[in-house]
Design brief:
The protein has 353 residues and is α/β, with parallel strands linked by helices. It has 15 helices and nine strands. Pfam families: Glycos_transf_2 (PF00535).
Amino acid sequence: MAIAKVSILIPYYNDTAHIEAAIQSAYAQTYPNWEVIVVDDCSPKPEAAALIRSLQQKYGFTLLSPARNGGATRALQLAFEHASGDYISILSQDDLYTPDKLAKAMQAITSEALDAVYFNGAIIGDDYPSTPPKPFETAEVEHAQSSGGCAAVSSLLASNDTHGCLLTQGAVYSHRLYGELSWVREKFILDDYPMSVIVWRDYKVRFYPDVVYLYRHHDNNIHKQYWRWFPARLQVVAELVEPERRLDTLAFYLMNMGEFSMQNRRHDDAARFIAAGMMLADSSGNQKLAMSLFSKLAGKMSRESSQALNSRMHALLGRQSLKGRLVGVMKRILIGLVPVRAWRKQLRKKLAI
């Protein structure tokens, strides 16, 4: 029986520091049947473009060069269109696979007849391997998985910035699934997050806590470009979150922006994001998160900003209170106009007036 082939897709752009290590990790796989396809997305630095060509000659992978820059999602789509594998695996230019990534993934897929599988990853820095990798937390995702696929989707959407343990670098997808979701790469600004949500919602998939990839933290990660990716996250809320959960999910994203702002020492911005998130939060988890973030922020803001924020919060809370009282008065007036006493009684009971 023929062994299924896996296509490893690597979008490449302007990287000279990490790309060879990423390619080496792909070539170090213990799984016997795979191919590597790299798309150079019009790297403007001559040394970066020259490097990837020299690496192609050294390792022999397929190198594609589109006529114009289209971003990582279009690069992945182009790579997929040239992929001959039965399964698809994604590798970022600055990350690494462990040698057993494909072997573990394919064993799980074939033994359970899965459409896709996700494994955990671990964070590394540019000083790796002198500093050991730090695995992503998995407890929440494992608990959600035990509750069913829908619970896992909810966990993806509303907690901990898409969960590092569910990034696409840890996944392997069937060729059929990846092709069926090509529309995601066309529609969404940032495709890996909505892709994972839709895979968990619509396909047979499992998560395992074993670490099979290393995610490199450096200055170009999202925590340094949080404003750039904020519109993409809002698009996910608008397109994928159920209407009754949109505001609470948006509250989480706003507070997450507050955390990113704190990391970048923009404490006044952080306070505004967190305050906005607190006003929208419905769930107890997000309300507790807001209080926790405000506690961390204490003492880091300027005195003037702190006083301005307090005044703004009191004004907001005052308007909310006044609005609630006015709504209550209007309800009582309108119910009083109902001609039948029994109906008025039922309405008061139903509306808790």
